[in-house]
Amino acid sequence: MKFPRTYTLEEISLIIDCQYIGDSNFSVLGMNEIHVVEPGDIVFVDHPKYYDKALQSAATIVLINKEVDCPEGKALLISDDPFRDFNKLSLFFRPFQSSHSHISETAIIGKNTVIQPNVFVGNHVVIGENCVIHSNVSLYDHTIIGDHVTIHAGSVIGGDAFYYKKRPAGFDQLLSCGRVVIEDHVDIGASCTIDRGVTGDTTIGEGTKIDCQVQIGHDTVLGKKCLVAAQVGIAGCCVIEDEVTIWGQVGITSGVTVGSKAVLQGKTGVSKSLEGGKVYYGVPAGEVREKLRELAVLKYLPQLIEKLKITL
């Protein structure tokens, strides 16, 4: 997320009441998670395991819970709880805005777009031309929708990321201030849920078609001309490249990449990145021919146990 203007390091330190290391006039342009940071961004880190990754990232301001050597050309914000202070910045720059009507006065809706009864359109939502938004769809704040998009009844676009930190007293949520961006010619089935990015965008690429009851997690990028069948669950921060086909009840864990033109057959469980141009099946996912051979061999296991007099 980019800030509405350039802030100084000192100004940011006053917002979250913390010390800093670096030039007080050091420019701060925005805040983002580690996988989408750019120069001028703040990134937070609160575990020694990830210090080096944050300090060597593209981010030039690191919100950290220990005073360490500051890399050249960067600045540090020293906090006893970076997670909490990252949330403070989210609340400061994108506070929750309540709505007072079903369609916000700040929403922009293009020509020939049909909004059916009982649709909720939040603050600063942009909907393109020739779209159809069916009844009981909820479009949360800052959602961006292109042209020729259809969203069927009961879908929720822009809910919070499922992102929590375990505390002794329970779970603290990392607040979401990102967006969902849906490109042109996308169809979304009934009762789908697409979570907004924590600070960046969850993106659905041009020409992609999504069936009913699909969940797509925060900051995931779903490429162009993908097909996603019913009851698929895609976790946060995934990259699904162009023209991938995902059949029913597939589950994909967070942070993986599925290469272009891959096919994931029904009920496949994806726990690591997969190359494009191949067909996958099983849990964990493997190339379909290999998985089918494994299943064929399993049929002979009882006979093998009997033949070898194996006692189980």
From TrEMBL:
Annotated keywords: Acyltransferase, Lipid A biosynthesis, Lipid biosynthesis, Lipid metabolism, Repeat, Transferase
Domain named UDP-3-O-[3-hydroxymyristoyl] glucosamine N-acyltransferase non-repeat region: residues = 26-90
**Record-linked InterPro entries:** Hexapep, LpxD, Trimer_LpxA-like_sf, UDP_GlcNAc_AcTrfase_non-rep
Which Gene Ontology terms cover its molecular function? UDP-3-O-[(3R)-3-hydroxyacyl]-glucosamine N-acyltransferase activity
| EC number, as in UniProt | 2.3.1.191
Q: What is this protein called?
A: UDP-3-O-(3-hydroxymyristoyl)glucosamine N-acyltransferase
Q: Which organism is it from?
A: Namhaeicola litoreus
